Amino acid sequence: MKPNGNKYAVRQGAVLFSEYAPGSGIKKALEIGRENILLELRESKLKGRGGAGFPTATKWMLVAAAKSEEKFIVCNADEGEPGTFKDRVLLLEYPELVFEGMLIAGYTLGARQGIIYLRGEYEYMLKSLESYLEQMKEDNLLGNNILGNPNFNFEIVIRLGSGAYVCGEETALIESLEGNRGEARNRPPYPVNTGYLGRPTVVNNVETLASVPHILVKGGEWFRTFGTDKSTGSKLFSVSGDCERPGVYELPWGTKIKDLLEIVGAKNTKAVQVGGASGSCIPKSQFERTLAYEDAATGGSIMIFNESRNMLKILKNFMEFFVEESCGQCTPCRVGNVKLLEGIEKIERGVYTFGHLNKLKELGRTMQVASKCGLGQSSPNAFLSILENFKEEIFNKNGYGGHNGK
Amino acid sequence: MLVLEKNSLTEEVESLVEFYGTERSALLPILQAVQRKHKYVSDFVQQEIARLLDIHPVEVYSVVSFYAFLHSEPQGRNIVRLCQTIACDLAGKEAVARAVERELGITFGQTTKDKRITLEYANCLGMCDQGPAMIVNDRVYTHLTPEKAINILNEIK
Ligand SMILES: Cc1cc2nc3c(=O)[nH]c(=O)nc-3n(C[C@H](O)[C@H](O)[C@H](O)COP(=O)(O)O)c2cc1C
Ligand code: SF4
Ligand code: FES
Predict the structure, then answer these.
(1) Spelled out in words, what is the top-level CATH class assigned to the domain B78-156?
(2) Percent of chain A with pLDDT over 90
(3) By C-alpha distance, which of B70, B10, B126, B41 is closest to A206?
(4) Is 3.40.50.970 the CATH number for A234-306?
(5) Which residue of A91, A162, A379 to mutate against B (max B Cβ within 10 Å)?
(6) Which residues are CB-contacts of A112 (< 8 A; sequence separation ≥ 6)?
(7) Residue A6 has what pLDDT?
(8) Contact call for B123 and A80, based on CB within 8 A
(9) Sign of CA dihedral B72, B75, B79, B82
(10) Residue A104 CB: number of other CB atoms within 10 A?
């Protein structure tokens, strides 16, 4: 089955969903040379689309500068954040952009191998991706002496995940590639120095890599004409929940939440969860805010909740997610998420005290600083933002101590 | 286990190791291949993989136990995973879940008596715009209703 396969013709957008001739990115790359590629990328001010927003040019320059016999380009296609599915669309409908982005990275940084870490849930894409790679080999876009350039050799392999959200975290991903449990490593050292098999490694999100060919062909300056000063270009938003037209939308960074809701046909919206379960919950009073790294940041997940929804139930669903997905390595996250979930269940049953809840909020803030990786650092976000922004609903609806949601 | 069966499993693991190599990084692809075919990775197979990769069996077990999609106990011939995350929940996952349980006579986490189906929950499958969603082995089904889900399950062998 090909989910969304029929939508190709109707997709439109400023960058990723704009016209592109397959092969033109890598040809341009070979024409201008390594240094200019990095300069163009820096000019574009492209930041990572996987969530953390690290400047892509800086990451590439670090790997370019690292001295090593062997380097790796890893495409992070683990896409596990609840409410995110834009990488699915890119991989199914625009594989040429993703693969070419990896190829350009390989050329620029002197890596000979690219690895796509594809989440196990996307195994159904394997056939189409592999046949596209075969095609690229036939077209001499992969393999040895690519496009007739002696010593430019690059191959791409696909590796599958096995159902662990934390493996999207770059160091856990590398552990997983190396055949271990997907447990996050201490950082530093960063993958740019000590990555896959201890070698300098670029780990980039699918969308980040897919942006690169467009930037090379049309220029970093052109890219910067979209978005805001600090968040350049456009972004793919995965929109789900209560709206008429869920799906993937390419919009410039800086779009107001209010305007996005209008575009997707959302009515009677009470709240928008921006950035998935690990993002934060934005109430109606803040819909003037913009989607941007400097305001409401997101790796792309936008989940819409209308007036009929019970925010406590939503929060509970998020916390159950984190309890299951914590890798269990460090205590703040392993124990903390369970405690937060227990607190929610107490509110549900009406047997909480505010003294206890205040302690849990403190615990949440401790988790944000004391957890080892981004999972535990961000899992309290929903807890803190939903309890704060919807306290009226959660605590007043049925009177203090009432049986919420029943 | 019969000796014959053991021999054939050993051969199978040997050929996987030949294909994927003996480096530690080959472990996950090997386990995934076994899981795909047998729906679980038995103790015996884990020991054989450990032997051929020259690592301790506990290492193999610790990896198997970490990943949600790898099992160390026998499963049904088909593994059905219904998304339990919020977008699918809002779209009506609960009704689908209850209908499926009723139809199969098992609850989530269980396998039917005839070993036809193991029923599990999964977290977000990346189909949130088309929920409720489920994966049967590696095929994705979207926009489920109780009726549609039951029809799909009744068709698998
Ligand atoms: C728990 C957790 C899960 C993550 N999942 C993903 C993911 O599925 N895809 C992704 O690209 N980045 C994910 N990240 C971010 C990666 O660690 C990393 O920052 C990113 O792949 C870097 O690529 P970029 O600079 O192109 O964004 C995750 C981070 C954490 C903490
Ligand atoms: S924060 Fe959570 S997921 Fe990250 S290392 Fe600690 S226990 Fe594992
Ligand atoms: S929430 Fe079910 S597929 Fe994402």
Answers:
(1) alpha beta
(2) 94
(3) B126
(4) no
(5) A162
(6) A70, A71, A106, A153, A154, A155
(7) 45
(8) yes
(9) negative
(10) 25
Domain B8-66 top-level CATH class: mainly alpha
The domain spans of chain A are: 2-223, 234-306, 311-397
Q: Is B23 on the interface with A (CB under 8 A)?
A: yes
Q: How far is the CA of B73 from the centre of ligand 1 (A)?
A: 31
Q: Report CB contact under 8 Å: A122, B126.
A: yes
Average pLDDT over residues A330-342: 98
Predicted complex ipTM: 0.97
Exposed/middle/buried for residue A368 (C-beta within 10 Å: 0-12, 13-18, 19+): middle
Among the partner-chain residues B126, B131, B140, the one whose CB lies closest to the CB of A1 is: B140
pLDDT higher than 90, residue A405: no
Predicted confidence (pLDDT) per residue in A240-269, tens digit: 999 999 999 999 999 999 999 999 999 999
Is domain A311-397 classified as CATH 3.30.710.10? no
What is the amino acid identity at position B152?
I
The CA distance from A224 to A309, in Å, is: 38
Distance CA B3, CA B19 (A): 24
Best residue among A170, A326, A379 to mutate for probing ligand 2, ranked by most atoms within 8 Å of CB: A326
Relative to beta strand A234-241, strand A301-306 is parallel
pLDDT of the residue at A385: 95
Element (H, E) at B139: strand B139-141
> Does pTM surpass 0.90?
yes
CA B93 to chain centroid? 20
Listed as ranges, residues in chain B with pLDDT below 70 are none
pLDDT at position A129 is 98
pLDDT tens figures, B41-79: 999 999 999 999 999 999 999 999 999 999 999 999 999
pLDDT band, very low/low/confident/very high, at A210 (cuts 50, 70, 90): very high
Residue A396 — very low, low, confident or very high, per pLDDT cuts 50/70/90?
Answer: confident
Contacts of B90 in chain A (CB under 8 A): 241-242, 305, 309
CATH code for the part of the protein at A2-223: 3.40.50.11540
Q: Where are the domains of chain B?
A: 8-66, 78-156
